[in-house]
Automatic annotation (TrEMBL):
The keyword Transferase applies. This is Glycosyl transferase family 28. It comes from Chitinophaga flava. It comes from the Bacteria. Coiled coil: none annotated. GO terms for molecular function: hexosyltransferase activity. Residues 252-323 form the Glycosyl transferase family 28 C-terminal domain. Keywords: Transferase.
């Protein structure tokens, strides 16, 4: 049951669903729209139960991002109440024995085990201070209603989420489950691109970054692939010598494109970061303006040496490529177990069967 805040919540659930199927569980997926379409494409045999998302709307300008979200809190509260009523009905109708909710707050149940997945125990806002502390208390009050909280990251200092998932105090029901990525490292992929550009995120900022990149990439002598993150609308064009622009790649094609690229340019959305870390890719991050979580992650991971980050307001492709070429990238891998989640899922399913 993924949150409808970008496709990342749906794509990061894919490895969990495969592991549950491997453990012998019968799965139902609750989603709507493009999230349901993506998961149906990946799992055509699984029944999809329609469940409306929070349907958040985004500000035209980054500086109004936080205010726009706050204005929609009543709508979010209403959606959470609906989730509760919906879940009580569905549990009875389909004899559901457990629920895994990816960051949807209203899918807890008194009579069956429920799991909440999040990498944001601390919710970043443009305002900081007491607002963040208040949101954290509210966040924890929901998390404690669940049997368990799974954090897609690693405990300790070698992590991807910083203080977002490593606050001073953790809820008592939390478990770190490592990276969640549908992609797999391979050694048989030849280098094909100097640069892979992954455009994603909410409008209008998705289009803003796309325009910046398209305007600037044509003046460079690069072998580049630009993926616009617009599934459902086929488009494939050579926009400059050596530069290909497509609207969408399926999971296999995107996995191979990432491995075939020297450098990736992308947003600092958390699922993308997990994909980059698992494939051990060098990347230039351009956080979505006004999205405090992405801005924090870009700065934090650049400070750690894992990725190079630049604000969209200062984005210049040549400068970014030159700076990234000099940046002393560190590998995130070290001794991390990229399949840590598998045992967590297996043990959880064993308790149900």
């Amino acid at each position: 049951m993924p949150l409808d805040w970008g496709l990342g919540h749906a794509t990061r659930d894919i490895p969990l669903i495969y592991e549950m199927l491997n453990a012998g569980a019968q799965i139902f997926i609750a989603a709507e729209g493009k999230h349901a379409a993506l998961l149906k494409q990946e799992f055509p045999e699984i029944t999809i139960l329609p469940l409306p998302g929070y349907r958040i709307q985004y500000a035209q300008k980054g500086k109004f991002f936080g205010i726009k979200i706050i204005q929609q809190i009543p709508k979010i509260v209403s959606a959470i109440k609906y989730e509760q009523r919906w879940l009580n009905k569905v549990v009875k109708e389909y004899q559901i024995s457990a629920v895994i909710s990816d960051n949807r707050f209203g899918l807890y149940h008194k009579e069956i085990p429920t799991v909440f997945i999040t990498h944001q125990l601390l919710i970043k806002t443009p305002f900081g201070g007491w607002i963040e502390r208040t949101l954290q208390k509210l966040n924890y009050s929901f998390i404690r209603k669940y049997s368990a909280c799974w954090i897609p990251d690693f405990a300790g200092n070698n992590n991807l989420s910083g203080e977002l998932a490593h606050p001073a105090q953790l809820p008592s029901n939390t478990t770190y489950i490592g990276c969640l990525s549908r992609f797999e490292p391979r050694t048989d992929i030849e280098k094909k691109y100097d640069l892979l550009v992954l455009i994603s995120g909410p409008e209008p900022q998705r289009s803003n970054l796309e325009k910046l990149v398209l305007d600037q990439v044509k003046t460079h002598s690069l072998k580049a692939l630009i993926v616009s993150g617009k599934p459902g609308t086929p488009y494939h064009e050579e926009v400059a010598p050596g530069v290909t622009h497509v609207n969408h790649l399926n999971a296999k094609e995107l996995n191979e494109a990432m491995l075939a690229s020297d450098m990736v340019l992308s947003r600092s959305g958390y699922t993308t970061l997990m994909d980059l870390a698992k494939l051990n890719k060098r990347a230039i991050l351009v956080p979505t303006p006004g999205q405090s979580e992405q801005v924090y992650l870009g700065e934090y991971l650049m400070e750690k040496g894992y990725f190079y980050s630049i604000p969209q307001e200062q984005f210049d492709l040549k400068t970014a490529l030159d700076e990234a070429a000099r940046f002393p990238f560190k590998s995130f891998h070290h001794d991390q177990d990229m399949y840590l989640y598998k045992n967590v899922v297996k043990n959880f399913i064993k308790t149900l069967l």
